[in-house]
Amino acid sequence: MIPEIGHFSLIVATALSFLLAIYPLIGAKINHPGMINSAKPLAIMQFLLMSLSFAVLAYAFATDDFSVGYVATNSNSLLPIQYKISAVWGGHEGSLLLWSLTLAIWTAAVAVFSQGIPKVALARVLSVMGMIAIGFNLFILLTSNPFDRTLPYLPLDGNDLNPLLQDIGLIFHPPMLYMGYVGFSVAFAFAIAALMAGRLDSAWARWSRPWTLIAWVFLTSGIALGSWWAYYELGWGGWWFWDPVENSSFMPWLAGTALIHSLAVSEKRGVFKSWTVLLSISAFSLSLLGTFLVRSGVLVSVHAFASDPARGLFILAFLIAVVGGSLLLYAVKGSEIKSRGKYSLFSRETFLLMNNVLLIAALLVVLIGTLLPLVHKELGMGSISIGVPFFNNIFFYMIIPLAIALGVAPLLRWKKQEADLRPLFKQLAVCAVASIVLAVALPAIFADKIKIVAVVGFALAFWVIITSSLEVYIRATHRHSFVSGVTKLGRSHWAMVLGHVGLAMMLIGISATQNYKIEKDLRMLPGDEVVFADYLFEFERIGEANGSNYEGYKAVFNISKDGKFETVMKAEKRSYFAQRSMPMTEAAIDWGVTRDLYIALGEQLADDSWAIRIYYEPFIRFIWWGGLVMSIGGLLAVSDRRYRFVNKRVAKAQSLGQE
Amino acid sequence: MTDDEKKKKPLITADEKKKKQLMTRLIPLIVFLCVSAFLYIGLFRDATVLESTFIGRPVPEFALNDLVEPELQHDKSVLTGQPMLLNVWATWCPTCYAEHKYLNELAEDGVYIVGMNYKDERSKALRWLEELDNPYKISLYDPDGMLGLDLGVYGAPETFFIDSKGIIQFKHVGDINPRNWNGELKAIYEQLK
After folding, report:
1. A259 by DSSP, 3-state: which?
2. What is the ipTM of this complex?
3. Minimal Cβ distance to B21: which of A163, A305, A335
4. Helix, strand, coil shares of chain B as percentages rounded to 5?
5. pTM (2 d.p.)
6. What does CATH list as the number for B64-192?
7. pLDDT confidence of A631, banded at 50, 70, 90?
């Protein structure tokens, strides 16, 4: 009986999304206040019903209701409770329900937290979000209903969750990514609503900006978390695999990053509007494309398990309707986008535009790299595989102009730099020399070889850090002394600095690990020693290590450097009783600021020796710390005073003042 | 600088040249529709034929215990000597269950199949073989997915087509059923000889 409640509330939620898509929109057209005002309660009701539906499914998992087919295929009575709950979105149907719930959350949030926005504009925005909800809810109801029953032949126990997916990472990772993916639907809805109304002013950019930033923060931290878990859990010592599923989260991120910059320019300067609209559409379209790629089985990858042409066809039709429709709207109504304001070559606008173009170029590379194997095959040109070297190579060349322009842009003024550019060039030249010196010094200190590719990466990172510091110094000392000036810088200013420094940190981490990472597969007996990256690894012993709910082996290594004892590392391999017996490699990671040592215990070989993988990963933590710093930057930008809609008038005055 | 302003004009103003601008704005739509066309065709392609970087390469070194007799250890020599299928399966995989019956039939027809029990529990796997019959000449037990990792296994079921020299010639992702076996897989197996 209870699962039917979930099914029923999903149906009602779908009906409400139809109402939400139609009613307020007509209201906005004929200017009917009652119909316009209906948007908010409809959005909230839809959210409540979706939550109920999702809660019912979670309840079915928690109580082992195997009469529900989806529960029976994805869960099992022996599964620990946290995996039962995460199993809710472990399969196709449930993850779509989570997608839909996330959309309902964003819709309700926009409805509730948008007091400063005129009701008519808000009604249009919510209507557009309602249209998206229709598509997804119908998709679930028609092709992927998680509440389908197995009655009357219900199984005694479930099939269990795929052990590959039984990981703590799976509890948080997908919801975070979905919050990011679906969050771009808000920017999308704002852009479409503005196109419909033919009103694209700075106010539109200001309303859209905080929502886009929050979505971007979710996506950034979701991707960074995913990468960290891959490193931590998989035992391969890698952090990014250019897997199609990873790519499909990276593409909306690239578009979203371009979008938050473009929105800033549109809000402050009133230019780039056409570009901003297109990016708003792209960011969400790429989220939908990502969903399509993962869910349709068009591309086979590690993460995609479901593959069913009927489902794929539905998503594709939906994708064409949403993306095609909005691009058509853009083409037709785009002429009404009026950008005022001019700018010269040496202006912040030009450099921001340049970076946006580069980000989009990077996006196209990922898109082509992901889809080309497919296209190639369809054209009958045989199969090709585009792998890691392709992406790494192209990204290396693309990051160079991107990082250079990124360092310069904040130093330039809006509109036009003063006539005499010489002081600026002088400053930039000093920054460039300093960056190169530091970039050569860094590998000279921590590594034995200086590799040119790494030096380029480090130089770009230091360039960004130094120019950012210079910029902070110049702004702070503009009117005040440095100390009092620094405290007066706004939060959105610090947001920019953190965003850029975060990227620089990632560059350091990536350049160091890609070029100086050392890995070795060894066959070791207890007592063996191996020298590796200046460290002496002594395989002291291995013993059984049984816990209360698992049995396993634990290998103990003594690490020393230059004859001095450094640390003890314990790599384990466990098989859990309760948790479906999948042996888990508990890699030993000795983490540090400048390097990680990473030991993964393999299998026992014939003569009591063990297969052991050792990695030396210099500066790898900087990659995730960089992601964290970027996310914090995004949060700071959202918390900027300008976006507290209650103080709308103050905000307006302030944003004018900033121009 | 004025030259640059001129260059940028089509991006930021919209009075004359409307038609040309409309064409410009239609570009994203056209690109998208082309992409969709490929996605549409891709949808009906047999997605189970998967490229693997391991194709054309010999089976990697490994040391795995036998599923049935835990003391017995196998290495790569069991995967050489004759054309064979290496079937990756697990009891947690519903598709493997569906596939199993047909594997029994193939084994009866004389197809040499080696099984690799992947990330699984020995007792469950043994019960499975007892209940459903054992099509495998040899059963490797890979509880950690170590060999699976080396072979680039994405999930289960997957089947590798290995020739008598121990070189992987083909990899099939998903279940083997009468349709795809008689469609193309049988021919690939015949070619191994």
Report:
1. helix
2. 0.70
3. A335
4. 45, 20, 35
5. 0.79
6. 3.40.30.10
7. very high
